[in-house]
Amino acid sequence: MHIDKHQDVIAACRFCFMCRHLDPVGNVTFQESDTPRGRALIIDKIRMANENLKNPDFIATLYRSALSGANRFHCVSHYDEVGLVLAARKDIVEAGLAPEPVKALAEELSQATFTVKGKGKTLYYGNNPKLYAGCKVLSGGDPGKALEVLGFVSESQAVFDRFKKTVVAANCTTLIVAEPSAYDFLKDKLDAIKVEHCSEYLLSAGVKTGPARKAYYLESDFLKNYDRNLTAPRQLLAQCGYKLVPFGTNNEESYSVGEGAVVFDRLNPEVCAKLCQRVCDLADNLKTNLLITPSQYVKTTLSKYNSHIRIVSLEEAVAQRKD
Ligand code: SF4
What we know:
This protein is an alpha/beta fold. Helices cover 46% and strands 11% of the residues.
């Protein structure tokens, strides 16, 4: 089983409660099972008796993890509690035990196709092509990351193979990726093609600035907790004249409402609504505070659950300074 490769994490996390305050889901369900310790105890039970893999409560708990990476990032030994859950999901899928909503979502994600338009040696993959004059534009669904986090390994590979074929056929030397989950997935996968997060590209391209403007930056689970706390987004916003203010009560917790799980809102809308409510409750003034996120998922999800929230994507924040 895939979980067997993570014995060290099981042993470390199952009796440790040090990072319980950083689990986004545990913070809104108040259930011990929704913490790294609770999930490690569940997976330890599965390790000891494979029959426990069939327990529907265990399966639901493992698909309810937000995979924010905050716990792993701030764990003093960086135990890979995210990798442990992902391994368990692969075991669930390989045993044919994925819940029906998960299977239906995986089937939908497996249909992703990709197209390229325009001219240039740089290819842009995101929602704001107007910022990237002279670049080709790649459109389509998720490149395979969502299927990977759901535990569908071969289906993820099939989608990625189609994505890669499209990128290679575009004959470009650089791929600019906007969504942090896609950047995390693609950054080491495209051989001779340089993969940059859009903030890195825009920073090197030079941006216009504007009058100083206060904004709250919602850290990305991927860019912070998975990708070594990429500094380019904050540098870019600072160059544009934004005075960034820390959001919430601390700088360790994830306020990205399930970004790490990529399709969290599709599978767990009730919990996701609670995650969004928590963010709204922590805002000083929801109607006047400007929130900036590098993730379209975060923007869309927070806007879905509260129409009053003022949130823009990082690219939109930059574009507002270019007008
Ligand atoms: S990730 Fe680290 S701090 Fe959190 S439960 Fe595991 S060992 Fe403890």
